[in-house]
Amino acid sequence: MPSQLLEAIDTLAGSALAPWKRQVNACLLVSLPRAEPWSVPHAGWHVDLGRLQNRGVVPGIQLFACLDTVAPKGGGTVVVAGSHRVLDDDPWIGPAMKHANRLRRLPYFRELLSTDVTNRDRFVNEPSRIGDVELQVVELCGEPGDVFLVDMRVLHNAAPNASRAPRLMVTERFMREDIMKESLAENRARVEASSLAAEERA
Ligand SMILES: O=C(O)CCC(=O)C(=O)O
Ligand SMILES: [Fe+2]
User: Residue 122 — very low, low, confident or very high, per pLDDT cuts 50/70/90?
Assistant: First the structure.
């Protein structure tokens, strides 16, 4: 990983990253072409976070990189640009798809997640506003070596690959050390509470 890239991630995260996250531990993202028209998905929107207290800070940075040309409608990950800024007054962020459910109380997200909304191109073609936050679905497309650094609170999703080529990207998550520790402690507490409840029932 080039040091300038790690420095950029550090700067965006605003605090030290978990040291073990400095080892490369990337996931390959491959999706095969499907003979179906491309459209903005309604199911599957999520964040890659466990349940966390919302401290109003960037919990980490998720890197997405193109290993090959990723053309528009070619299966690039879709993100809701601006979605990290709309839950400032909520005490929690995550986990995963529950985050999308929490956003459902805002009409924009209710429509994005609804099977009843059939004119789905508008999420890509027209920005929407909630207060001073501009929201728009953006496809992560590019050429080999292009890198996107995304706030981990940003809602995102896999998208159909309507091109003729497999989509080849790679992703890696860089969590802040303080947030990672908190997330692990939160998980541990929940596991302990549920095993205690199971023991009491037994
Ligand atoms: O396959 C995709 O483009 C989405 C993958 C994803 O959600 C992730 O890597 O966190
Ligand atoms: Fe994800």
Answer: very high
